[in-house]
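Batch job 17 of 40 flagged for manual review because the log was empty.
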Amino acid sequence: MVTLRCMEAVPATDADRRGAFDELKELLSSGRIDAAEFATRSSKIADATTLSELAALVTAGGRAPSASAPAKQSFGTVVGDAITSPELGRSVGRFATVVGLRRVVLWLLGLALAGGTAFAAWFGLGVGESSDSPTTPEVSPGVTQRTVTAPAHPELLTSAGFTKLRDDMRAKIGNTRYISAVIYPDYATIEVPVAGDPDHSQRWYYNGTFPYNPIESPRRAGSKDADLRSVKVEALARAIQRAPEQLDVRDADRTYLIFDNRSGLNVMSVYVMSPSNKTGYWTMKLNGTTITKYKAP
């Protein structure tokens, strides 16, 4: 059995750090850590030099569900279990967490369509066609075929994308109040208060729509909620654009936002990470006033 002690001397690679970051994202999506904990742990990934240090970041105090309560399923696991057996579903779910649910769903649909086409070709199911009939449709001279393009995925780290998220949230949930939120370029997880129930909160997943029912969990004692309408969108967009230079992570390839409450103050933070996991963050009030900048060493 591998223990943390066994891994103390094993150096961590950049791939290991990326894997740890993905594990933290899964913990956040499943509700086992909150946005503040995610921010704390993810900021320490770049400084981790051994596998034991990375393992501690994704396991110690991870709020694993108690034995009396079933483990919350990640959204990827829900998709997997809906398609096949729970065992294989969990494997699909882990894969979905890494590469993105949208790509997995498209991949599965592609396999289904390809399988159906092969089935029809094999058994000659085409009406009036033999098995050696050409599969490429004839195109009349001078006629241009129309290409169907899939709708663009939302870019949430832009003024338009953030505004759409806020509008969709109001339409779906009825308001734009939140306890915490983590926003990536193509999806977000948002923890919201439950009306009339101060002891619970709901965690919603957003990827241009709200495709799932929320996950309800006990609300953290002392947690405060705020309103996304209070965010000065123009200031946030400028900070996102300037963050790589301001935080000395000029080769940043990952950017995400965290909204939470720290010491009674509602704040938003822009995090940037490089391919080598060099990390910096810029914390502001919701009106864009800078509170602190952590520059990568």
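Reviewer: the log was empty due to a logging misconfiguration, but the result itself is present. Residues 204 and 214 are 5 Å apart (CA to CA). Unflagging and moving on to job 18.
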